[in-house]
Amino acid sequence: MLPEFHWTKQQEKLISTAYADLLDSLDSVTEPEERKLIERAFNLANEAHKGVERKSHEPYILHPIAVAKITAQLLPGDAEAVACALLHDVVEDTSYTNGDIERIFGPTIAQIVEGLTKIDTLAAAGESRQVINYKQLVMSIEKDFRTIIIKLADRLHNMRTLSSMPEEKRLKTASET
Description:
177 residues, mainly alpha, globular
């Protein structure tokens, strides 16, 4: 049995400060059930990304929190969009499935998260993985426009944090964006 993972005190403080900052930015999310939705999404994302660091050596969860904060600025009062931003990398990067997200958060959030999740299968008919991902994104925008807002928030945060990546990855990310 593996020992339970614990962040350092400094990392825990970074996470709790970033999450508190997100909550402070949600002035227009006033309903208790909406706040609980955001809390549940944060708790699941935080648990799912536990022990994972970005290239900058910061806890990975700081990225979804930052994306959620940008999303909250772009879509004030939209608790579902903030929850989706917190969850946007859970299916792509962890053992959680879109079925898990639907069971826990319902079909609307699962649909948006699925639209934000990159395809990880081999490209069919000679199409690149990137082309397939763009097609999926466009189709998901037709179902719910918030998908593109969250994707743009994700890209914006990735662009803001490019300095910790190797040059090849910086160029690839910038080009895709």
